[in-house]
TrEMBL record:
Keywords carried by this UniProt record: Membrane, Transmembrane, Transmembrane helix
InterPro entries: DUF2177_membr
Descriptive protein name: Transmembrane protein
Organism the protein comes from: Thiocapsa marina 5811
Top-level taxonomic group: Bacteria
Transmembrane stretches, start-end: 7-27, 47-66, 78-93, 113-134
């Protein structure tokens, strides 16, 4: 597949990721994080860092989950690879925080890791379908 295809796929995947994750962070789990992490949360968001993370992370989902799935024409592969990507990245973040930050709750480790699995699996699946729609299979 060519670079232009992946640029289009990336640009169409970005709003999918943002819509799902911002719904989680801004609505569904908003109070969960405040209640459990108030002692370490910053009162303001560092938007350049946050946006940089999101843009890099989405590229990771495409590279590790969606591209191999498109090559195999397998939605199941996209979802599985996305779930695994979410698990490994989120659990690494959570356990690093637990090891280095004061009072990082195990409840946050579990909930956030499960969220990472669900988020990345759903974004990878959606992106795979977008890729098929773009003619990448």
């Amino acid at each position: 597949m060519q670079a232009l295809f992946f640029v289009k796929l990336y640009l169409l995947t970005v709003p999918v990721f943002f819509a799902i994750d911002l719904l989680w962070l801004g609505v569904v789990a908003k109070t969960f994080y405040r209640e459990n992490l108030a002692h370490v949360l910053s009162p303001t968001v560092n938007w350049p860092a946050a946006l940089s993370f999101y843009l890099i992370y989405i590229a990771g989902i495409l590279y590790f989950a969606v591209a191999p799935a498109l090559a195999q024409d397998s939605l199941g592969r996209a979802v599985l690879n996305g779930a695994l990507f979410g698990f490994f990245t989120y659990i690494t973040y959570e356990l690093t925080n637990m090891a280095t930050l004061p009072s990082w709750p195990i409840k946050v480790v579990i909930v956030d890791t499960l969220w990472g699995i669900a988020l990345c699996a759903s974004v990878a699946g959606g992106s795979f379908m977008i890729g098929r729609w773009l003619g990448g299979v």
